[in-house]
Amino acid sequence: MTAAYLVMFTGTPTAVATDLARAQAAALTDRCRPVGADQYENRWDEHTPSEWRLMTRRKGSGGRWSWTQRSVRTLPLLPSDPTR
Fold first, then answer.
1. HSE of 3 in the Cβ direction (CA atoms, 13 Å)?
2. Are the beta carbons of 7 and 16 closer than 8 angstroms?
3. Residue 10 DSSP symbol
4. What are the angstrom distances between the C-alpha of 13 and each of 19, 40, 50, 56, 62?
5. Beta strands 40-48; 12-17: pairing state
6. What is the per-residue pLDDT across 48-77, written as a single tens digit (0 to 9) for each?
7. CA-closest candidate to residue 53, choices 11, 3, 83
8. Helix (H) or strand (E) segment spanning residue 66
9. Within 10 A of 28 (CB to CB), how many other CB atoms are there?
10. Residue 46 DSSP SS3
């Protein structure tokens, strides 16, 4: 494993995962907790090469997507020191 995925909400880490799909699922599960969340559709946008941001819009509206405050960031893992 060369990287970890950090789930963020408003710049605060909320979870960590070993693969991107699990990190995005964790962020989406947190996003869907509020009442009425089933009325929205969500998608992930690669904001930078190491950051994905969750976007949302009301189902069936065809309107534009809005950024949420949830993101997933890639963190490189440092190799373990064999001399320790």
1. 12
2. yes
3. T
4. 16, 24, 15, 20, 32
5. unpaired
6. 999 999 998 888 888 899 998 899 999 888
7. 11
8. strand 66-76
9. 17
10. strand
Name the pTM for this structure: 0.78
Give percent of the chain with pLDDT exceeding 70: 83
CB hemisphere CA count around 72 (13 angstroms):
26
Average pLDDT, the chain: 85
CB 54 within 8 A of CB 42: yes
Distance CA(28)–CA(58), nearest Å, equals 15
Query: Are 52 and 20 within 8 A, CB to CB?
Result: yes
Q: Report d(CA 31, CA 35) in Å as an integer.
A: 10
- Rounded alpha-carbon distances, angstroms, from residue 33 to 18, 24, 46, 57, 75: 23, 15, 23, 16, 26
